[in-house]
What does this fold into?
Amino acid sequence: MASETYQSKNVCVIGAGPSGLVAARELRNEGHRVVVLEQNHDVGGQWLYDPNVEGEDPLGRAPTLKVHSSLYTSLRLMLPREIAGFTDFPFAVKKGRDMRRFPGHTELLLYLKDFCDWFGLRELIRFNTRVSYVGMLDGDHAGGCKDLKWVVRSVEKKTEIFVEEVFDAVVVASGHYSKPRLPSIKGMDAWKRKQMHSHIYRVPEPFRDEARQYIVNCEIVVVVVGNSVSGQDISMELVDVAKAIYLSAKSLDISEGLSKVISKHENLHLRPQIESLQEDGNVLFVDGSWVIADTIIYCTGYSYTFPFLDTKGIVTIDDNRVGPLYVHTFPPSLAPSLSFMGIATKIIGFPFFESQAKWIAQLLSGQTTLPSRDDMMHSIKEFYHSREIAGIPKHNTHEIGDFEYCDRYGDHIGFPRLEEWRKKICLSTIRNAETDLETYKDSWDDHELLQEALQSPHFTQLGPQDLDFPL
It folds into this structure.
């Protein structure tokens, strides 16, 4: 629904990662005054690799994390570059840089820096600035959402100067791949040997020849808990340095690709979930098998956390469900003055973030409006119910995995639907990973789809490009 009135707002964006950057651009394009607060020294968010993890709590249980990024050195994109990137700024190959279809994380950081510089966003960002508090002015919103304002307190990390400001709206784009999510395992707190979350894993070298640390005839191994992306990647790295790796998975019904990897490496073993941990280093699995382990690496995902945000209990986190949020973005009673970006997962992220940013910007300017508060709450309850019927756990509430859902989201503002070639390449990649986990990033069979992508308006819109894909 369009509005005849136009309003320019003072907006605070928290975070200068992919979602925060595109939010800043769209808000400015819509005529809003934008300030981006970023705790690190540069843009990138999670993609700003930080090798220095010394001093970080190995399990991430400390109230405040020192390290934001959870990237490990060897990490490469899960999806090919041609389906990543924002719709009007293709993630094109550049000579002298990482030219692979599935580049490493440094290449994506460079893309984000290019995006930032191309659209002149740096002038909007305050770097090395940590947000300590975000709350409603006067502590409530009795005047209604239209009159709601937000107090934002931040500190410049180098000077330790505190600043308090008032904004008309806040966009939370602080990411959710930093705070470790840990399992509850009997004996976990009493286990004496090394335990860590993948949040602080960087390179495999510290795990080399660890058997020397303990007595002879004691089999020293690494147990990796969780067989999702990071668990698989880290296990495959450790096979060249550790004596033995046991990959503990919820289900032993694994993909063909992972099965091939396990059969190829004699020191990589699949095990079910852990039953308990013993003080002597014994790891007991639910099938009765056990091993003496030196290290346990928990590749068990991350928790949504917003320690700076005070909504007087309106927005809560329950078993990793942030809610209530209308379409993973707007808390009905605080919208559109408070919004969240990047909450949804298992999507082609950048186009989705872009549609989110455009919608938020247009809502704040009054160019479009949201449904009524009651209608939004009804929609949220229906969505929760549909997930329950489908047997999806509450902690997976924000995992979408549905092209149609993303397309319907963009329909709110007439955002173009994902191109068919983009969807097909995504599905083709997932299939290849399922069958050839170790090789799919360097060997593929979707050459026709790749050509269709490179010849599409997405890649040709900016004029001649240095498109030198290794075909």
